[in-house]
User: Fold these one by one.
Assistant:
Number 1:
Amino acid sequence: MKYNVDEKGYYGEFGGAFIPEMLYPNVENLRQNYLKIMAEPSFKEEFDQLLKDYVGRPSPLYLAKRLSKKYNTKVYLKREDLNHTGAHKVNNTIGQILMAKRLGKKRIIAETGAGQHGVATATVCALMGMECIVYMGEIDIARQAPNVARMKMLGAEVRPALSGSRTLKDATNEAIRDWINNPVNTHYIIGSAIGPHPYPDMVTRFQSVISEEIKWQLKEKEGKETPDYIIACIGGGSNAAGTYYHYLHEENVKIIAVEAAGKGVHSGESAATSALGKEGVIHGCKTLLMQTNDGQITEPYSISAGLDYPGVGPMHAHLHKTGRAEFISATDDEAMNAGLELTKLEGIIPAIESSHALAVFKHKTFKPDDVVVISLSGRGDKDLDNYIKYFKL
Ligand SMILES: *Cc1c(COP(=O)(O)O)cnc(C)c1O
């Protein structure tokens, strides 16, 4: 079984590029060039240098002793929370802005829901001195004031999406419209392992630095490159894809994806795509998504803004369908408590997204000699208000 993308842009039956004809030249240009550009020594050198000196990589692989003791197994945390800007997203935006420069683009667009991807994009645009326009639903702009302020400080223009439910999918539509109108000078930075081919593969490759590092870090600490389990939370699936990438074909490494069950998988308020999703097209690719019987996308819900998405990337749909990955749905309550537990046991306040991955211990028991690696995708500073409200701190 093959878990990477094939030449046609598919992972099994998922993936592809379902785009308006007007976007075809842009996406085709990217498709023809992305692997070539990524393989150029000068590209690799610049990417690696920025990951090292600007992001602060390699991120540590930390043996969480008190957490391990509590669950009677050996838990390592991959510390993406220590990256500049506080999460894994910057690995991808750095890669894509370097790609945009090599393709001769002068202007960057992105869409954002909670603002995390918008901030990561605005950050690298400031770094490179490039024009940056971030589309964001009007409702989200009101809900996410600190991230809007960050983007503005970084020099980005935040354009409100005023149509529909005025949230993420409307922002996506505006970004796509912009790209259709500005096909030559503009690159569209997608923030997760989703979108028309080649985006899911390109984003996965930029994020694959995570598992590349885990391999040599585990070798140093455990004398072998492979853990027994590799675990990540999954929204669109970029931190998960990067964490799994170099282990996809190591069948003795078990893969676990934790998605957001919100108030319960069947509560009507969740983002549990693997449990509830059906095949359909979202964001330009065929994948699993939450939809009504007549194909309308269902409004998702999670306490975690980054997991509040009605689909998963096509690679994950394939990992689910083939059984290569086990999918677990963790509720808001399970995640919040797992986040507080990590804080008390290890002195690390995780992003609520990452807290979902930590909630795996509520669902699974590991053996004492298992080596379990969990992607700690981001830090919890951005979520303090939510933690305060939830725990009445
Ligand atoms: C955005 C985000 C996620 C979810 O995105 P993926 O593409 O699924 O990784 C997870 N964790 C954090 C900290 C995030 O900011």
Number 2:
Amino acid sequence: MSHALASIRSRIAAAETTAGRAAGSVTLVAVSKTQPWDHIAPVLAAGQRVFGENRVQEAMERWTPHRQDVELHLIGPLQTNKVRDAVAFFDVIETVDREKLARALAGEIARQGKAPRLYIQVNIGEEPQKAGIAPAEADGFIALCRDQLGLALEGLMCIPPADDDPAPHFARLRAIADRNGLAKLSMGMSDDFEIAVREGATSVRVGSAIFGSRTYPPA
Ligand SMILES: *Cc1c(COP(=O)(O)O)cnc(C)c1O
């Protein structure tokens, strides 16, 4: 599996060069959600240190023994009853997407005296089934998080509609970040990360292209 990792790393490096961006300016978040540990171990052994998970419980179970070695990003929906664990466990929470969650995070960050880095998820294609704050509400939500709740925001995250050209969606996310003074953009997955690098991604979230396709065991 680590040859796949090396290939993704070199494609990111090539995309950085093509886009005229500094080498190493894009962080690879290896999305290990639902993967068996024997797919993850070689990637860890090959030196990958930043991983993305979409479930708090699953992440804690599998990563607790390796917690000191890795940076962990929560990239899946966060329920308010999991906020305590998420604040305690993750380095980055990429899915802040509603006021109730932002308030719960602010309370828990104060209580624990520990703040994960925070990204707001924007529903950039305005898809009814998808999580994220609507683009038209993003400026107001960012202001609420910062000014009323005192949250230190780092950036924005999005998942464009599967069947659209992702480039205009990435460009729209970047415009929202730029006008709000947010430096980081988490965008781009296995099928479109090079386009995302061209459009200004500072991190890409790549799963199946590194680990192989996911198998979802029956619940
Ligand atoms: C699963 C997932 C990814 C990775 O998707 P791939 O197509 O396997 O690269 C990236 N971001 C989010 C939010 C995900 O849920």
